[in-house]
Specification:
Elements: H1 4-15, E1 20-21, E2 43-44, H2 49-62, E3 66-69, E4 86-89, E5 96-100, E6 105-108, H3 114-123, E7 126-127, H4 140-146, H5 153-156, E8 163-169, E9 175-179, H6 191-195, E10 204-211, E11 213-214, E12 218-226, H7 229-241, E13 248-253, H8 254-262, E14 273-281, H9 283-298, E15 303-307, H10 309-320, H11 322-327, E16 332-339, H12 345-359, E17 362-368, E18 373-380, H13 385-401, H14 420-423, H15 426-439, H16 458-461
Parallel strand pairs: 2-4, 3-4
Antiparallel strand pairs: 1-2, 5-6, 6-10, 7-11, 8-9, 8-10, 12-14, 12-15, 13-14, 13-17, 16-18, 17-18
Helix pairs in contact: 1-2, 7-9, 12-13
Bound molecules: flavin-adenine dinucleotide.
Flavin-adenine dinucleotide (FAD) binds near residues 75, 141, 142 and 143.
Length: about 475
């Protein structure tokens, strides 16, 4: 059995000593955007699949834990090195290897920034649709591991729907390819789908083949103010039932509007909800859809404004002004990303408003209304933490009762591990654990997360 010193002595000469970080150099790898941190004993920065395989094999043989890290923008502590795990950072495996427009495909390394992937697709006249709001900061490998969602899921779906194939390194260092370049492939069990969204617990992703789609020729934005969130949700449902499925449908509820107004954003007087809609398609298609959408929305709206080009960007800035405005309000922000069935969204928002009134906590809701994924933000002072965690538990119980889930896109990670059993029944959890041990019999790949939860008291020991 080797220790950290022993494995770094083996790996240093292979990777290059500048790719083995120790001491103060590991500090930037201790946290993600969940906000708590745990220092890793060592960080490895591979540059090829061979490097990744060598690192995994050496650590596995030595019985030492490790965790993959993309760019550390995760919101659930997924990349935190729990249990003194080594970090394997994919930041230097960031190449766009190939774009094949005729095949509507792109091959990339996992550390590539999502915005680089989107830009490379656009340069080829195509589009890579998934669009988490962290596109300029997050990696495509992190997106695959979290099955990231974002703003355009209502029409285009989540990351997993665009992954054709994955090259992976198993925790013991063996390499394999999952999926293929074929659009239809039912050979064997769909292990690729198991790895997508597995929060880095099954395998280390080293190469990704992505599916691309034609780039829409036209876009339009509609900004629609309502007195109540119920009306906004009903109007969106009416629009979709009439066949107009927006590319984006963001809902900003009452408390968020109040906070935006205090931050200087021009909010329509009397508005209790804002719906920001993005349409895309052919020029005539967008024109037609916009006319039909406006006709339906106006039946319930207080006011409606349509825009395109630069004017539309100004409207979307209302949405991007939100997170910074919320962060300014309190020293701590707990951001839950629950998801409920489309027809239960208004009920869920009402629940959060009652919860705020009952507990006195500041709770602000916005979200991807087209897919029922609502971000419920608790802005709290440190002494309110216990109370907020109790409120979160009530919220989770309610979303499960409504037929929804405790996380729509951020993953369970460490942050939601204590509540995994609320969403997953004991038989399902046991099956998940059996799958995990088929990939990782020693349990060394990203320990202390999702399926296992942190060991007793480990969360509270995090800085
Ligand atoms: C401002 C902001 C906005 C955001 N908006 C959205 C949003 O709209 N939608 C959304 O879904 N998320 C959103 N997120 C969350 C986050 O950006 C995503 O979860 C993203 O997919 C994480 O990517 P990352 O590269 O930062 O991964 P990391 O945080 O580094 O890691 C996340 C998980 O992926 C695993 N992982 C990373 N790389 C690999 C690999 N190569 N192989 C195996 N496992 C790996 C890690 O072990 C970890 O479990 C947002 C975050 C921020 C800060």
């Amino acid at each position: 059995m080797r220790d950290w010193q022993g494995v770094t002595k083996i790996l240093g000469p292979v990777l290059g000593w500048d790719r083995v970080l120790r001491g103060a150099a590991v500090e930037p790898y201790a946290a993600d955007r969940w906000g708590r941190s745990a220092l890793p004993p060592v960080v490895f920065v591979p540059q090829s699949q061979d490097h990744v395989s060598m690192i995994a094999r050496t650590l596995y043989e030595a019985g030492l834990p490790f965790v993959a890290r993309g760019r550390g923008t995760g919101m659930s502590g997924g990349a935190l090195p729990m249990g003194r795990a080594a970090v394997i950072s994919f930041e230097k495996m960031d190449r766009i290897i190939e774009v094949r427009p005729d095949a509507f495909e792109m091959t990339v390394e996992p550390g590539a920034l999502l915005s680089s992937v989107q830009a490379a697709a656009a340069r080829a006249g195509l589009m890579y649709p998934p669009d988490p709001a962290s596109a300029d900061e997050c990696s495509i490998g992190g997106n695959v591991a979290e099955n990231a969602g974002g703003l355009s899921c209502v029409k285009y779906g989540v990351t997993g729907e665009y992954v054709l194939a994955l090259d992976v390194v198993l925790p013991d260092g063996r390499c394999c390819s999952l999926g293929s370049h074929a659009r239809k492939d039912v050979a064997g069990l769909d292990l690729k789908r198991l790895v997508i969204g597995s929060e880095g617990m099954l395998a280390l992703v080293t190469q990704i083949v992505l599916r691309l789609v034609p780039r829409p020729a036209a876009e339009a934005t509609i900004c629609c103010w309502f007195a109540e969130a119920d009306q906004a949700v009903a109007a969106l449902q009416g629009m979709m039932q009439a066949g107009v499925v927006p590319a984006r449908a963001e809902l900003i509820a009452r408390e968020c509007l109040r906070i935006l107004a205090e931050d200087g954003v021009a909010v329509h007087p009397g508005a209790g909800a804002l719906l920001l809609l993005g349409l895309d398609g052919t020029v005539s298609g967008v024109r037609d859809e916009q006319a039909r959408a406006e006709e339906i929305l106006r039946r319930q709206a207080l006011a409606l404004e349509a825009a395109s080009g630069e004017q539309a960007e100004v409207l979307w800035k209302i949405r991007s002004a939100l997170s910074p405005a919320l962060k300014k309000l309190a020293p701590m922000k707990i951001n839950e990303d629950i998801a409920v069935p489309l027809d239960r969204q208004a009920e869920c928002i009402r629940f959060t408003e009652n919860l705020a009134a009952r507990t006195g906590l500041m709770i602000a809701v916005f979200g991807h209304a087209g897919d029922g994924n609502l971000h419920v933000n608790f802005m709290i002072r440190p002494e309110q933490r216990k109370e907020a965690e109790q409120a979160v538990e009530l919220l989770f119980a309610e979303v499960v009762r409504l037929g929804g889930t405790i996380t729509g896109e951020h993953g369970i990670g460490v942050a939601k591990a204590p509540w995994a059993g609320l969403r997953l029944d004991p038989v399902t959890l046991a099956l998940c654990r059996a799958v995990k041990s088929a990939f990782d019999p020693k349990g060394l790949c990203n320990p202390g997360k999702a399926l296992y939860g942190p060991v007793e008291g480990e969360i509270s020991r995090l800085v």
